[in-house]
Design a protein that fits this description.
Length: 286
């Protein structure tokens, strides 16, 4: 199925995401409070994989803010492979993250796992993240389409680009065009990294739609040593931003400890991006 046929068969929509080579659509600029994704700048979303305590998320917020990050991320509802691992603090974690984000005047984004949790979370979050495992949860996507809150949609690790874009359409046809696409790595025959980062696929998605596209190199690689270089490549390639995991003390992290950036490596990455932003003419500063 050609995704461009969807809008030929459906009534015209102001929120359509595909255009033609001769008549491209204006790019969507997604506003998450005081941060714009899809404009001239490059946006950095950072924070721990999981919210573990008030002190931990406050330390993370201070680290992200002091290094020029734009949005605080962190998981309160965790979709883990094993039911015996840390599942998150739930709504209490969302509230702790809200306090930390407000303390450092940052917007915050967190993952929602079920449509049943949307109403309880909405007063506290600035944007909802739909994770890789939930890309095909059409009930959740439809409900998020009814809201006036931005949605960050991660590509499923076994999804084609067309399936990813169609998942975004579930949100958009509900009336919410504030959607950011996030490439987070796909499953291939290679096991040297956690997944395989599809940078070409992300660029193709941005070419085919007018939605902002960002990269999550933390989940794509599982290797913090690779993340600064991939972050630089994302900026140089002209994509709209990135999402990374950083923890105040990765050695004691309750979730994805092996892939979290240390404070030192995060600071180094942000310094490198600031230097590269001068060459590319794409500001990173808040």
């Amino acid at each position: 199925m050609d995704i461009t046929n969807i809008h030929k068969e459906a009534p015209p929509l102001n929120t359509q995401t595909t255009g033609t080579r001769d008549a491209p659509l204006p790019r969507v600029r997604v506003r998450i409070k005081n941060t714009e994704i899809g404009g001239d700048g490059f946006v950095v979303i950072a924070g721990p994989c999981a919210i573990e305590s008030g002190e931990q998320i406050r330390q993370a917020a201070e680290l992200v803010s002091s290094n020029g990050g734009h949005l605080l991320r962190g998981g309160a509802f965790k979709a883990r492979t094993s039911p015996y691992t840390f599942q998150g603090l739930g709504l209490d974690g969302v509230k702790l993250m809200r306090e930390a984000a407000d303390l450092y005047s940052m917007p915050m984004i967190t993952e929602v796992l079920s449509e049943r949790d949307v109403d309880a979370m909405e007063p506290y979050v600035d944007a909802f993240q739909v994770g890789s495992r939930n890309m095909d949860n059409t009930a959740l996507l439809k409900q998020l389409g009814q809201l006036d809150k931005p949605v960050l949609l991660k590509r499923g690790f076994a999804a084609t680009i067309q399936e990813w874009l169609l998942a975004a359409e579930y949100v958009i046809v509900g009336g919410n065009n504030q959607v950011v696409l996030c490439e987070r790595g796909i499953r291939t025959f290679s096991n040297e990294t956690r997944f395989t980062l599809d940078l070409a696929g992300a660029l193709y998605a941005r070419q085919q739609t007018n939605l902002p596209v960002i990269i999550d190199p933390s989940h794509a690689t599982g290797n913090p040593q690779l993340i600064p270089s991939l972050a630089a490549a994302t900026l140089a390639a002209g994509l709209d931003g990135l999402m990374v995991e950083v923890h105040p003390n990765p050695e004691v992290a309750l979730s994805d400890a092996e892939q979290a950036l240390s404070p030192e490596l995060f600071t180094e990455m942000m310094s490198q991006l600031q230097r590269l932003s001068v060459a590319t003419g794409r500001p990173i500063t808040r």
